[in-house]
Amino acid sequence: MDAFSSALIGALDKIRPAVVHIYAVTPKTGQIALGTGVILDHYHIITTAQVVALEDEITVKTSDGKRRRAECIGLDPLYFLAVLRVEERLPVDPPTFAPDGTVPVGLFVCAAGFALGQELTATSGIICSSDRTIYRPKARGRGNLPVDGLLLTNAAVHPGNAGGPLVDLEGRVVGINGIPWQGGMSLVLQAAVAARVASQIIDYGYAVHPWLGFSGEGDVIDDIWVEMLNLPNDRGLVVQYVQPGGPGQRAGVQEMDMVMAVDGRQPVTSTGMIRKILASHRYGERVPLTVLRQGEMIELHLSVEEVPGLDQLTNGTVVESTLREHYDESAGGRGLIRRSPPPPAGDRPAWPRTPSWWACLARGAPWRRRGAAGR
Prior knowledge:
By secondary structure, the protein is of the alpha+beta class. It contains 7 helices and 17 strands. Strands 1-2-3-6-5-4 form a 6-stranded antiparallel β-barrel. The longest helix has 14 residues, at 191-204. It is globular and about 65 Å long. The chain starts with a helix and ends in a 13-residue tail after the last helix.
């Protein structure tokens, strides 16, 4: 056997104990969903909210073939991530989740999962884009919400492995499988972001999704100015727009400021990076923001506030989309898909099982990358 195949098989053997099969039943309707999850710790499992809802009766099957009861303790409306808690301790060591910034473009990866609860399945590819931000539309088209910390891979994601791990050849979890996208690529949530969101749901009951109230683009400073002004680095984020009344304006951010550091981390390359740093804090906390303004370094303090419109994703106003049909066509009505008709609108849970933005992405709908949506 060649060295590459041996490394791939070794990575799958390493991650296999941490991958679980999920069987969920909706009590009111009898709908059944099958999917994949990843063990986070000895009592919690991460999966996609396409598989489970808060009221579901859930059974997970671990790699040793044993079945355990579980409950959904929280759903994140922005990332459509679900966190399960099992009744008894899982006798499995949790996998290693890759830290932020350690998943470069070109890294070889493998998407693993349990299709229909059978043997472990795997597809392979590389990381095509790291730390991608896309914009999710709010209900009724009233603006967009930024979704940071996504990966693009050409490893095929399908109903059998969505919610499962994307692993590298070392057996690290580098992401949580999302959906097929466009151009033969798939969307995956970064492992560090998934772990952060799940941990906040466990600790606080919700995940932190901050907004900035300003937008801009990364830029590089000429070496001569770096030396003359004694700057700590040669790049930062140039602020191009400050929203009136937003956190940025209240903190004192002005147009043409260059954000050099956030909470001591530098260099700052994107608004997505700033949001990810703020997301590690609690709402109401104030985070140091260092800006370069007219040759002078100034320290401001940016308040962590919830992004406006997040409630529109959780109040039941988002209509169930065609993703169910998309998956049904590709998988013959099996895998993640609820195989019975959806319940009447009045009986549907507050979180829809399949968000409209996933379906738009699957169809290759265009997305804005700048402007008001980025704020």
